[in-house]
Amino acid sequence: MELPAALRAAVDRALEGVPLAELQRAADTLSSRYRAELRDGRLHLSDEMFANAYLATRLPATFAAVRASLGSAAELMPDFEPKSLLDVGAGPGTALWAASDCWPTIDSATMIEASQAIRKVGLALSAHSAVAHVDWRAADAAKSFEADKADLVTLAYVLDELSPAEGLALVERLWAATGGLLVVVEPGTPAGWRRMMAVRSRLIELGAHLAAPCPHSHACPIVEPDWCHFSRRVARSRLHRLTKRGEVPWEDEKYIFLAASRLPAETFRARVLAPARGGSGKILLKLCLENGSVEEKLLTKRDGDLFKAARRADWGDVL
Ligand SMILES: C[S@@+](CC[C@H](N)C(=O)[O-])C[C@H]1O[C@@H](n2cnc3c(N)ncnc32)[C@H](O)[C@@H]1O
């Protein structure tokens, strides 16, 4: 997945002239803080250099994950046409760009962000977005923030920076602010999945309808050490590659998400939970099924149309 051209150009402009060695140092520190899920009372994006490192190395991947999550929900909610967005822990405005790419109907957005450094970057980028009214607000979302109800509410890659209790309290508040759809996205690690399971249980208790990725609202059938997650291939720009000292022009971003709706979304029978395996004439798919079970299903040519659909199905697709 590539960034939208206007965002790519705005990011390139923002990073023009930033010394590579400084970017690399900041990216290394940022990456080790994220990997350790460090909660030491400091925001990860506490200054301009960390904000720049996020733009260079994380924005393309979180954009891909958020865009794919929104796309999965949109597929099952064809009549949903949001006009307003509320995004919390907005960073450089990733969800604004992903949401307006998915739903060009969005014409106003409220972006809540605690870090002054990344808010400044996000504000500058969003001037180039297609959304007419974008309101950036400084707030610690774990404490309190002011925001009207919005059709679409997003919380992407934020829960890992909050304590479990703060995270669930925030999700409850965001659900109360959701007019149509709430989408939560987290890294596709076992820890990210566990956090998402807690969010899932709480939203079901609150009466939410799960639009995606789950085909049911029964207990999650996945048992540790397995965990549910998806993946998107992300194109790396030259600067991204240099900053990460990477060889290949792409990386795979693993993520997990939950889309919770006020109205029931379209139902579906199964979601593909892993890359398909198989050889000629047969295919093995790991599926989450609408009856609440997870199953490895072997399909052969004898399964006719189902086999043809399975051959086309990708990890994360509805079958
Ligand atoms: C990993 S970044 C994700 C940014 C963006 N949502 C994305 O997906 O690219 C997490 C963001 O949440 C912000 N954040 C963390 N805790 C917060 C809080 N309590 N209130 C507001 N923002 C917070 C951080 O400053 C950071 O910008």
UniProtKB/TrEMBL annotation:
> Where does it sit, as one GO cellular component term?
small ribosomal subunit
Biological-process GO terms, alphabetical: methylation; translation
Keyword Transmembrane on entry: no
> Gene3D superfamilies given for it?
Vaccinia Virus protein VP39
Tell me the SUPFAM superfamilies matching this sequence: S-adenosyl-L-methionine-dependent methyltransferases (SSF53335)
Instruction: Give the keywords, sorted.
Output: Iron, Iron-sulfur, Metal-binding, Methyltransferase, Ribonucleoprotein, Ribosomal protein, Transferase, Transit peptide
InterPro entries xrefs? Mt_RNA_Methyltransferase, Ribosomal_Rsm22-like, SAM-dependent_MTases_sf
Could you tell me one molecular function GO term of this UniProt entry?
methyltransferase activity
What name does the UniProt record give this protein? Methyltransferase domain-containing protein
Origin species: Aminobacter carboxidus
Upper lineage is: Bacteria, Pseudomonadati, Pseudomonadota, Alphaproteobacteria, Hyphomicrobiales
